[in-house]
TrEMBL record:
InterPro entries: CarboxyPept-like_regulatory (IPR008969). GO terms for molecular function: carboxypeptidase activity. SUPFAM superfamilies: Carboxypeptidase regulatory domain-like (SSF49464). Keywords: Carboxypeptidase, Hydrolase, Protease. It comes from the Bacteria. This is Carboxypeptidase-like protein.
Amino acid sequence: MKNNFTFCFISFFTVQFAISQTNVEKWIKGQVTINNVSPVEGVNITNTSSKVMVVSDAYGHFSILSKEGDILSFSAINYEPLRKFINRQEFNLGSITVNLTLKTIELNEVVINKHSDISAENLGIISKDQIKLTTAERRLQTAGDFKPIHLLALLGGKLPFDPIINAINGKTKRLKKEVSVEKKEILMVKIENLFENQYYIEPLKIPQELIKGFQYYCVENPDFAKSLNDNNKTLCKFLIVGLASEFNENQLYNEK
């Protein structure tokens, strides 16, 4: 009888200890990447249990208070949303890595215009010198970009309060990051359509598994990014040779 009581007593406290362990919270560090190569900045990470939210930094790093079994929700503009379950191994290590994927836009119908000279500009619908803004740029324009020089206009009642409020609460800074991310994504689409994979492998000597990383390396270069935006394929081919040489040298140095 005494042995049974002792066994029940030990079992009770073992179960209680196990339950208490699952309720322990600690800081989980992580990194958000795309294609397992490039870090993603500005991703909103939310613990769905505690509703705590953090944002990934310029290196894709973040730190969030979580328990084993919690579910983290990852969301960002132009990326597919993702929900991540924290398992026991990840909780014990205190570290996780999450890989996001870009959103894909499906077109229901594609119409080829035989009259390429007919455009909205030629028809007078919009002016030829009108600046075309991306989605992120329009959001930033709507929010307003407050600068110290605008203070005089604000005091004179010639500027709305929205720009300064957005500057204080960090909305303007966040929108600027979104513009930067969007521009890089547009460049990535352009460079993917510019060269075939075989071009990277043969003349440039880029390993197939590093092609995506090399493309990110290229669009980070200001001169190459400008030539890509200008659709100057000749200059792109000239610049990419030097960038490939630098990229391969860095890979050899890192391996050493």
